[in-house]
C-alpha cells in the first residue's frame, strides 16, 4: 500500500471498524474491562483483523520512508541549486561593483590629477573649480546619447517623443530622461539630431545596446542612437567607417566592425 492521504484514512477506518465490531466503540474507548468481557471467538477475530491492518500499516510506513528519502534528496538538490544561484548573484554583484568603481575612478581622474599637483605645489580655488566642472561635464557626457532620424515638426512635444522612443527601446527598464533638446541649425527638409541626457551611465549604455530594437520596430526603424561624441571623436569614427568600407570592397566575405577604436573582423 502506497503512502497517500486517502490510504491513511482507509487504515484509520479499518481500525475503527475492527474495534467497533467487537466492542461497539472505536479503539480509543477500549479498556481492560471491555476486553475481559469478550469471548474467545471474538478476540480471535479481533487479532486476525488487527494483523491484517498492521500489515497494511507496515506497507504504508515503508512507502512513507521512501517518500521521505526522495524528498530529502530533492531538498539536497534544491540546496545545491540555491548555492549555485547565490554564487552567480555574488559574481554578478562583484562585476557591477567593479564597473561602478571603474566609472568613479574615471569621473574623478581629472580632479585627482589637480589634487596631486596641488600637493606638489599650491592648489588654487580656480584649479579645484575647473577639475570639478570637468568631472561633472564628463559625467553628463557619459549619460548622454544622440538620437538621429527622429521626426521634427514646428510645434512638437519633444519630451513626449523621446519618452515614447525610450519605452520602445527599453520596455523593461524605461530609463529616466533628465533633459532632451535638438542641436544644430534649423534647415528646411532636415531633421536635427536630439541630445538626450539620461539618469545614469548604465541607462545610456542600455539604450545604445538596444539600437537593434528600434530598427526592428515599425515607428522607429529609421531612427538610430549613437554616443555623444566630440568633433575629434566624430572624425575618428568617420575614418574608421571609411576603413571598413574599403576593407569590405576588397574582401566582402569578411565581417568588419569597430571595437575599442579599431577595425576588427571575423
Instruction: Indicate the proportion of strand residues.
Output: 5-15%
Order of helices and strands: HHHHHEHEEHHEHEE
Stretches where pLDDT is under 50 for at least 5 consecutive residues are none
Task: Count the DSSP helices.
Answer: 9
The chain-level mean pLDDT equals 78
DSSP helix fraction:
55-70%
Distance, first to last CA:
64 Å
Shape: rod-shaped
The largest sheet is: 4 strands, antiparallel
Query: Structural class of the helices, strands and pairings?
Result: alpha+beta
How large, in whole angstroms, is the Cα Rg? 39 Å
Would you report the number of β strands?
6
Largest sheet: spatial strand order: 2-3-1-4
Set down the secondary structure blueprint.
Elements lengths: L4 H19 L8 H5 L3 H68 L1 H12 L4 H18 L1 E5 L9 H12 L7 E6 L11 E5 L2 H9 L1 H6 L7 E4 L3 H20 L5 E4 L2 E4 L1
Antiparallel strand pairs: 1-3, 1-4, 2-3, 5-6
Helix pairs in contact: 1-3, 4-5
Structure write-up:
This protein is α+β, with helices and mostly antiparallel strands and 266 residues long. The chain has helices at 5-23, 32-36, 40-107, 109-120, 125-142, 158-169, 201-209, 211-216, 231-250; strands spanning 144-148, 177-182, 194-198, 224-227, 256-259, 262-265. The strands form two sheets. Strands 2-3-1-4 form a four-stranded antiparallel β-sheet. It is rod-shaped. The model has no long low-confidence stretch (mean pLDDT 78).
Amino acid at each position: 500500500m502506497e503512502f497517500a492521504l486517502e490510504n491513511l484514512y482507509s487504515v484509520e477506518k479499518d481500525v475503527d471498524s475492527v474495534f467497533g465490531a467487537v466492542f461497539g466503540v472505536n479503539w480509543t474507548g477500549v479498556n481492560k474491562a471491555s476486553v475481559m468481557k469478550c469471548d474467545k471467538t471474538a478476540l480471535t477475530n479481533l487479532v486476525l483483523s488487527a494483523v491484517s491492518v498492521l500489515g497494511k500499516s507496515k506497507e504504508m510506513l515503508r512507502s512513507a520512508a521512501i517518500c521521505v528519502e526522495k524528498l530529502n534528496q530533492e531538498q539536497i538538490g534544491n540546496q545545491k541549486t540555491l548555492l549555485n544561484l547565490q554564487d552567480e548573484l555574488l559574481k554578478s554583484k562583484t562585476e557591477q561593483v567593479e564597473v561602478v568603481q571603474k566609472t568613479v575612478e574615471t569621473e574623478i581622474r581629472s580632479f585627482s590629477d589637480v589634487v596631486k599637483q596641488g600637493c606638489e605645489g599650491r592648489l588654487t580655488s580656480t584649479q579645484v573649480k575647473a577639475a570639478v566642472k570637468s568631472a561633472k561635464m564628463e559625467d553628463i557626457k557619459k549619460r548622454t546619447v544622440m538620437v538621429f532620424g527622429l521626426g521634427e515638426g514646428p510645434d512638437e512635444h519633444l519630451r513626449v517623443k523621446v519618452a515614447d522612443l525610450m519605452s520602445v527601446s527599453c520596455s523593461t527598464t524605461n530609463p529616466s530622461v533628465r533633459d532632451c533638446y535638438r542641436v544644430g541649425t534649423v534647415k528646411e527638409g532636415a531633421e536635427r539630431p536630439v541630445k538626450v541626457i539620461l539618469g545614469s551611465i548604465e541607462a545610456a549604455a542600455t539604450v545604445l545596446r538596444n539600437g537593434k530594437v528600434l530598427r526592428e520596430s515599425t515607428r522607429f526603424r529609421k531612427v538610430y542612437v549613437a554616443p555623444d561624441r566630440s568633433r575629434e571623436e566624430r572624425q575618428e569614427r568617420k575614418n574608421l567607417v571609411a576603413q571598413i568600407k574599403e576593407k569590405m570592397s576588397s574582401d566582402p566575405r569578411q565581417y568588419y566592425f569597430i571595437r575599442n577604436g579599431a577595425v576588427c573582423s571575423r
